[in-house]
Amino acid sequence: MPPEVARRGPNGAVLILLATAVGGGAGYLLQIVTGVALGTAAYASFAVFWSALYLLVSALSGAQQEIARATHPVDRSGAGPGETRRAPVVRNFTLVAAVGVAAILAGSAWIWVGAVFPDEGWALVPPLVLGVSAYLVVAAVSGVLYGLSFWVAAAAMTVIDGVLRFALVGGLLLVTTDTAVLAWGVALPFAITPLVLWLFIRRGVVGRFAVDVGPRELSWNVLRTVVAAAATGIMVSGLPLMIQATGDTVSPDAFGSLTYAITLTRAPIVIVVLALQSYLVVVFRSHADAVLGWVARLSALVLVGAGLLALLAWWLGPWALSVLFRRSDVLAGGTIGLLVATAGLVGVLCVTGAATLSRAQHGAFAGGWILAAVVTVGVLLLPLGLHERTILALTIGPAAGLLLQGAALFRPPRADVAGADAPPVPPSA
Length: 429
Prior knowledge:
Distance between the termini: 18 Å
Helix content: over 70%
Strand order of the largest sheet: 1-3-2
Strand content: under 5%
Shape: globular
Radius of gyration: 21 Å
Number of helices: 14
Number of strands: 3
């Protein structure tokens, strides 16, 4: 797929949002189907595996964001705006990191497997290791595609991954409700998707990009973005795990109901903005003189959307959950509405985080997310009821991170920001 073909077509944001609607929608529908098929108690076990996998995947998505920031197009001869470091930097980093992550997870499993997977135990470790290590390849390929503004290919990655996962897990649900078997259906798309897509994009990618940092700088920058993304994961995908780990024992039905509501009601906001992270980094990078204006407009859009969805969730949420679970005592409308409203704060934090990263303010980017996660977990430890401590944590945590990242954005950017002399993103961005 040549670069000119890859860039041609609809606006980049439209493509990424459409891909998120399809791929993310497939995952969203999968959660609904799985919850109905398993019931609240059994769904809790599946949700913990999903949460553990996507907590680690969310952390490693920091690699995608940094590679997207560092990647710039060059022609086949290597001509570019002062850039000489080529693709092997990304390739070698990805291979070493994937093997290292797999070894760390497998080697340390004896420490955490009993606490994280008390029911299925070691049966869930192999799919977890495969899914997490394979995701590093997804992150690297996606990062390069975003950096090159290959929106069609980047969107295809999201669609293939989500649809394939829905097909695999949905098919498995027809024959089994065993969480250990379903876990393979969740993990395998991370390994299959980049292999399938590479067959179509290889010609348009190989030899056509360079990165503005060397191996050591890339590793250091990725480490900081990974730490920040891990904090993001705690506040998004890892919430069920964190709620379970920080509170007193509650009934499987109560925990499963809250987890199900968090997953379904917050996803339309949080997952959409998270899916746009790498895209926003590229857009902010190419509009460096107007970053604050972009942040203000996008943040207002996220908050207004969250407010409207919160009202809708307060009105229709209890009815929808009662239909799915065939009982009327699942969750109150006010609780569901507040869960959705707090998602707006996380969405704004995604916007300010992308802005700080685009200006190579890696410290502020990581610091904001880490502070938000630490405060979230700290509030979850308070001796309050399950619903009260969850909603309070989801409000105070992201608000703390916003204060830190917002303050950083009002500081002038460094004059020596890596990649500042990068070519502008094409108008299709």
